[in-house]
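Hi support team,

I submitted a single chain yesterday and got back a structure, but I'm not sure I'm reading the token output correctly. Could someone confirm the output below corresponds to the sequence I sent? I've pasted both exactly as they appear in my results page.

Thanks,
R.
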Amino acid sequence: MFKRLVSVYLIVILIIFVVLGVSMLKMFENYHFDKKSEALIDAGQKLNSTVIKYLNNQVSYERLGMEMESTERFLNAKIWVVDKMGYIYGVSSKSETKLIGRQLTENDIVKVLKGNIIAKRGDYDEYFDSPVMTVGIPIFVNGKVENGIFMHSPIYEIKETLKETYKIIIYSILISMLIAVALLYFISQKISKPIMEINKITKVIASGEFDKRVAIMSKDEIGQLAVSFNHMAEELNKLEEMRKGFIADVSHELRTPLTLITGYVKGLMDVELSEEKRGEYLDIIYKETGRLTELINDLLDLSRMESGKNILNMKKFDINELIRRNIVNYSNKLEEKNINVEANFKHDPMWVMADKESISQVISNLVDNSVKFMNDGDSLIINTDIKENKALISIRDTGIGIPASDLTNIWHRFYKGDKSRSRQVSGTGLGLSIVKEIIKSHNEQIWVESKVGEGAVFVFTLKLCDNA
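Hi R., thanks for writing in. Yes, this is the structure output for that exact sequence:
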């Protein structure tokens, strides 16, 4: 990651600096040349009046030469004065007196003698060994161009100035690259270290150690990834614990009836066993076999629901009527405990859209669960209502209630609320798990409220339909 970040960022930095460097150098170069040409033109304008005075015999040639020499020293520029035929008749430097009398053939001479001011840079015929900046200024006498002034300044002077700019840009690139590498190293370490740790712990978790966690060092995206990873590890740990618990619970639930069946089968093999005892043993074996069958059927149903293979037969039906039928089917057990049943239907009939058989199982399991933990003479209250365009069904009992610490566990497989009576309470411990999965498959909600000694109420929702 460090190599990739450095490569990308250095390429970006180089591109930016190259583009900016070239642009800035071009801008500085043009700026220097513009300023230099302005200075030369300004100095040429001042010499213009002196040349005119010379042509009018108001100053001597020596005076003209001295002023041109002074300007040359100040601007480091060679100065020529030419007549309207292009012949040089005045120079700023004594070393260039050999040029006096030579005729210039440059196209620039024609432009200047036509009244134009020119400014250019480059080679100037054979007169100079290196490129120069040339400025040409016409001299007007009585409104006509009679002469011209040419000023030549060497470009190397400007180039030397620009070299300093080159150095500044190069140093800036190098310093920026060093700072960028240092920062990128720090950033890449900050990013890659937790990722490497996550990768390392992933392998540990894959080997079966679900208690490992990633240290959270920041609140950015990497920190959020670490939080999500730890949450995933926690959930995997819970699943593993549930898997172990499930295997232990299934083994326990299967072992107990099988042990009883084995024991009583051996008892039946006793030839001295009385017919009364033999019938009693057979009755116990029959009940335990039924318990095993119920357990296996519940496990198969729960497995099918959790795998998403349970196909719902959605249809419209009256939920109140379905509740009545379930209460009638359960009347024997209710009468055994002298349970008082109360049904309150605020809207009758109340039509819902759901899988009728599955919802019947939900009602049956919830009623059965309530009855198991109710004492003789307790009450069972079933209410239906409409809230927020949903059918609301509640099954309340006045039994022993559920401790607050157990409210989240009752939906787990093989959980039995009253642990002190777990062996006395009949059932597989899968009823509420099946209820939860059925309601979940309908994309509806179910919840429980309870206080110890005051009973419990289970509430679930269903999709409401029109009566028509």
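A quick pointer for reading it: The first strand starts at residue 78 and ends at 83. Let us know if anything else looks off.

Best,
Support desk
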